[in-house]
Amino acid sequence: MKELVDTIAAWRADSAEIGRAVVVRTFGSAPRPEGAVMLATADGRIAGSVSGGCVEGAAFEEIQRARTTGRSRVIRYGISDQQAWDVGLACGGTIDVLVEPALREAAEAAARAATGVGATGGRAVVTPLPAGSPGPEAGPHAPGEGEPPAPVLVAWEDGRLDGSLGDPSLDAALVRLAIESLASGTSRTVELAGRSLFIEAFPTQPRLIVVGAGQVAIPLVAIAHALGYETIVIDGRPAFATRERFPDVDRLVVGWPDEVADSIGLGPSDAVAVLSHDAKFDEPALLAALARGCRYVGAIGSRKKVADMRERLLAAGARREALDRLRSPVGLDLGGRAPAEIALSIMAEIVALRYGGTGLAMREKTRPKVDPPSPTVPSAPVSGG
Question: What CA–CA distance (Å, rounded) separates 140 from 134?
């Protein structure tokens, strides 16, 4: 929903009343992921999408119905491959869509806080799904009449929870699941003690800190920028850390990485790529990144150089368990040797770690099979009766 923040602000300026539909569960190759949002106003304006065009018309009508009844409900839509093809998508699937009469203030605030460079997001909005919602099993489901929207909970990446499920153990489990969703940047529906809860993740914009402004750093920053990362380049050489060399970078820092760690707020959510090839510059940077628990820490170098570096880092006080997280030699084995190819391999490893990817070719990847939805699932919600 972060991409709709400006639209929401414009509509609010017009005093528009905004209803919402959001994908809370998918089966098969669904057109849009969990968390995809469509907004609609009472005067007919629409923004966003829950299916890429397959069921937007039906979802719009359901939002208007929810505005009339004041009730939320979850509707299961089956999208045939033909329908998807007709609107320019590769394949169909099945989606569960939560329709709400009004845009939640907590969701709007979380989206706004997580948007833009230097954002202060890092929270998940947890919505209890209405009684009678479809469960995690694939297949047809007749939508119920819904119920008034239940209060939401907000879980923060530092472990705080605003609200409660009424049981400390359930609250702790929910926080753990919410933090996992924030770490991966993905929303999902979970089942806790017989309750279906939609965890809508609004993580802080991912950030990449590149230490060493050499040739590999230039395409690495460009790739990271294209993927939505905030980027910082640190180098002790003013002639290298320039806007001409890094037109897409968010921030250039001339200095020693361990000395600027506090000023840039280096922390656990950051990815750090150390590329300077200079031990007196690289190793302090690695010690700082490992000590602060950065999610990804990688360093360029040959296996022999890396082995020697590890010994020096241990002697300098690095914990062995922290060194086990060091990605060095850095990147996935793509076979390329050009600076842009090395940058691509580094960014591929960062993305794979963020989302729990295997790094394998998709044809070699194996996952537990999920039974496909029943072919009788209609393209519009199943009516009751």
Answer: 9
